Amino acid sequence: MRRSAELTGRTAVVTGAATGIGAAIVERLAAQGMELVLVARDGARLEVTAERLRAEHGAQVSTLALDLADHGAPARLAEWLAEAGTEVDVLVNNAGVSLLGPVAGSDPARVRGLVDLNAGAVAELTAFLLPGMVARRRGAIVNVASTGAYAPAAYLAAYAASKAFVLSFTRALWAETRATGVRVVAVSPGPTETAMNTSRMPGKRDPGAVADTVMSALRGRGPAVVDGRLNALQTFVFGRLLPASAAAVIAERTLRKAALGNVSSVLP
Ligand SMILES: NC(=O)c1ccc[n+]([C@@H]2O[C@H](COP(=O)([O-])OP(=O)(O)OC[C@H]3O[C@@H](n4cnc5c(N)ncnc54)[C@H](OP(=O)(O)O)[C@@H]3O)[C@@H](O)[C@H]2O)c1
């Protein structure tokens, strides 16, 4: 891909950057000549990714091991960036977890932790880093949502709801920031081949394809992009054509076996 003058030499913060979709995104950003700050819980794994980016792209990469579901973690990240004098031009809120199963059988602490990470940290980190972008009149925030954001998903209730939050938050923020020079966009992958989704469903997308969609979303104009044509069609049918109750019932039937069978796989 041709390097974009708007990205080269600038700094991106990417959460959940060590594996899966996040690792593919930082690879694309490093190829654009960006300096990178990688965030996730497992510091050693982050360093492996960072080392690869340094070796393959000569990128300047820092890592910060943080549990973003912890209250106060986004503030610690913002402080760490401020102390290092780092101006953030691109924030990719990608870190996320899923939880498959009926709410009645779920650990309440895990449900809360999922919402704190998938929704809370996204909103808080955005609120910390957006003012600097607006003041500089440049920058971008990409929030990784999910096709699950577009309709209720039984057995993935908290996950889909957290992603619906991300989608709605991002669309509103897009409208708020349209005249500020800051690009805000939600990117929604469907089933993608990562550690989060080990299910044997057909048609799973490659994390690299999602990263390509993120890169084109950065150049685009609208508030929300779905990765992959079939996924886009699915979100149109479930999010726009069907009443929410019908969408919820169909999702319940589709996911029942995976959720109630003895499976550890987690679907998007
Ligand atoms: N795979 C799919 O089918 C699919 C579909 C739709 C949307 N998505 C979304 O895509 C994003 C990336 O997921 P993925 O599929 O690439 O899964 P993944 O490989 O499991 O990556 C998740 C990343 O988030 C980090 N993370 C998890 N909990 C964290 C926490 N509490 N604090 C900080 N970092 C944390 C993980 O690193 P550590 O474990 O080291 O913290 C990891 O780097 C997620 O937002 C997910 O919801 C995925």
A few lines on this structure:
By secondary structure, the protein is of the alpha/beta class. The chain has a single domain (11-193, 205-260), classed as Rossmann fold, CATH 3.40.50. It contains eight helices and seven strands; from the N terminus they run βαβαβαβαβαβαβαα.
Would you mind describing this structure in some detail?
By secondary structure, the protein is an alpha/beta fold. 49% of the residues lie in helices and 13% in strands. The protein has a seven-stranded parallel β-sheet with strand order 3-2-1-4-5-6-7, sandwiched between helices. β5, α5 (157-177) and β6 form a beta-alpha-beta unit. α3 (73-83) packs parallel to α4 and α4 (108-136) runs parallel beside α5. It is globular and about 50 Å long.
Strand content: 5-15%
Domains (count): 1
User: How far is the first residue's CA from the last residue's CA?
Assistant: 28 Å
Assembly annotation: single chain
* Bound ligands: NADP nicotinamide-adenine-dinucleotide phosphate
| Helix-strand string | EHEHEHEHEHEHEHH
CATH fourth-tier homologous superfamily: NAD(P)-binding Rossmann-like Domain
Largest sheet geometry = 7 strands, parallel
Based on CA atoms alone, the radius of gyration comes out at: 18 Å
Dominant shape: globular
